[in-house]
Amino acid sequence: MNASTPSRTLDAWLSYLEQIHPVGIDLGLERVAEVARRMGLLERCLAAHVITVAGTNGKGSTVAMIEALARAHGLATAAYTSPHLLRYNERLRFDGSEADDATLIAGFEAVEAARLDDEPVSLTYFEAGTLAALWAIACRRPDLAVLEVGLGGRLDAVNVIDADVAVITTIALDHADFLGTDLEGIGREKAGIMRAGHPVILGSNALPASVRQRADECGAQALQLGHDFHWLPRGAGRFSWQGAGADGTFSSLEDLPDPGLPLDNAATALQALRAAGMTLDEVSCRLALRELQVPGRMQWLGQWCLDVGHNPHAAAYLAGRLAEQPCRGRTWVLLGMLGDKDADGVIGALAGVADGWVAVTLAGDRARAAADLAGRIESAGGHVAYQAQTPEDGAVWLSGRLAPDDRVLVCGSFFTVAAILAWKQGQAA
């Protein structure tokens, strides 16, 4: 079948895109920028305002909060994130709803026509998907487009777009095979999304010095958590926020509900919108944060909490949230991780809240066996109650043994959470 055949299904397109480039991750902007130029994406505005979000942890929740807050203020929005949990369509949202197959297919057709025009250009799966999403967003030109940067920053496909506001959430060790283990170097790479003369929101007070240095070098206007904007606890489940607008004036919001996500990220989302020129309405902000739900981020389904955290920094946050909400029963951790992740660091971060563990094996070349995880857990003093060959098998075993007051944390990988989310949906159906 010809690659541009309109009758190609979404699944067929995704299968095709997985095969057209020799490697899955190929950092660099030359190829993707050339195709973007052919598509006219470098000469047209995607949206009235564009915000890009980079970082190690917290990108997805920050994007979701920016999107929800903007929608609550009546703005038409587009959001691009990755990876997805159950359906590729999750990666692109318009006004909070997943893009339909037809929109994605039209985007892939536009990318394919452009990359084969003149001298063919090879694109990775992620690059083709990013360009298709950008094309679909440009066709609609919403009030606000929020784009999550994938791996790194400077050389990520999303960085072909000049954003009005850049956001950097956190910097921690992850994807060491591609980004290395030097935090200053990782920070410099992620800081590559900054643009001269535009605001950059620094969503952590513990970023490497290289991030602020890059802002000074390129002339970006840096606004940092704890210095230029703040949040404060205001009793159980509430917080207040204060931040600066694009014109330098300060505003504050009181009695905001805790969305069940990192409040550093909530404060960062509010600051990003303020820096983009939005006047924040307190009632609208309360509504958006109260109703926000992000799949796979501290997502509670009965006794089960699902979170895609897969590095020690994210695991430490999860442990802290669970410690704040003690339960009368046992806390189980169902853990499945890939082989290139810091399993010992994650296990160590969760050890203080885990009463029992279920180790599971993930599928694929990068998988880590349940036996490997179990050995590491036991070496750290943990009790492994069961080893399962799949996340679903582990969930079935555990569900038959849960007491009414017990709870389960499912974490370690997007793949682990996706498997359990699908299993829970199957149970409900």
UniProtKB/TrEMBL annotation:
Enzyme Commission number, as recorded = 6.3.2.12, 6.3.2.17
Q: Which InterPro entries match?
A: Folylpolyglutamate_synth, Mur-like_cat_sf, Mur_ligase_C, Mur_ligase_C_dom_sf, Mur_ligase_cen
UniProt-listed SUPFAM superfamilies: MurD-like peptide ligases, catalytic domain, MurD-like peptide ligases, peptide-binding domain
Q: What are the recorded GO MF terms, alphabetically?
A: dihydrofolate synthase activity; tetrahydrofolylpolyglutamate synthase activity
In terms of Pfam families, this protein maps to: Mur_ligase_C, Mur_ligase_M
Residue intervals of the Mur ligase central domain: 53-196
Q: Does the keyword Lipid biosynthesis apply?
A: no
Pathway per its UniProt entry is: Cofactor biosynthesis; tetrahydrofolylpolyglutamate biosynthesis; Cofactor biosynthesis; tetrahydrofolate biosynthesis; 7,8-dihydrofolate from 2-amino-4-hydroxy-6-hydroxymethyl-7,8-dihydropteridine diphosphate and 4-aminobenzoate: step 2/2
Q: Which keywords accompany this UniProt record?
A: ATP-binding, Folate biosynthesis, Ligase, Magnesium, Metal-binding, Nucleotide-binding
> In terms of domain of life, where is this protein from?
Bacteria
Q: Which residues form the Mur ligase C-terminal domain?
A: 296-414
Report if keyword Metal-binding is assigned.
yes
Q: Which reaction(s) are listed as its catalytic activity?
A: (6S)-5,6,7,8-tetrahydrofolyl-(gamma-L-Glu)(n) + L-glutamate + ATP = (6S)-5,6,7,8-tetrahydrofolyl-(gamma-L-Glu)(n+1) + ADP + phosphate + H(+); 7,8-dihydropteroate + L-glutamate + ATP = 7,8-dihydrofolate + ADP + phosphate + H(+); (6R)-5,10-methylenetetrahydrofolyl-(gamma-L-Glu)(n) + L-glutamate + ATP = (6R)-5,10-methylenetetrahydrofolyl-(gamma-L-Glu)(n+1) + ADP + phosphate + H(+); 10-formyltetrahydrofolyl-(gamma-L-Glu)(n) + L-glutamate + ATP = 10-formyltetrahydrofolyl-(gamma-L-Glu)(n+1) + ADP + phosphate + H(+)
Q: Record's family?
A: Belongs to the folylpolyglutamate synthase family.
- Known function: Functions in two distinct reactions of the de novo folate biosynthetic pathway. Catalyzes the addition of a glutamate residue to dihydropteroate (7,8-dihydropteroate or H2Pte) to form dihydrofolate (7,8-dihydrofolate monoglutamate or H2Pte-Glu). Also catalyzes successive additions of L-glutamate to tetrahydrofolate or 10-formyltetrahydrofolate or 5,10-methylenetetrahydrofolate, leading to folylpolyglutamate derivatives.
Spell out the NCBIfam families in the cross-references.
folC (TIGR01499), PRK10846.1 (NF008101)
This protein is called what? Dihydrofolate synthase/folylpolyglutamate synthase
Gene it is expressed from: folC
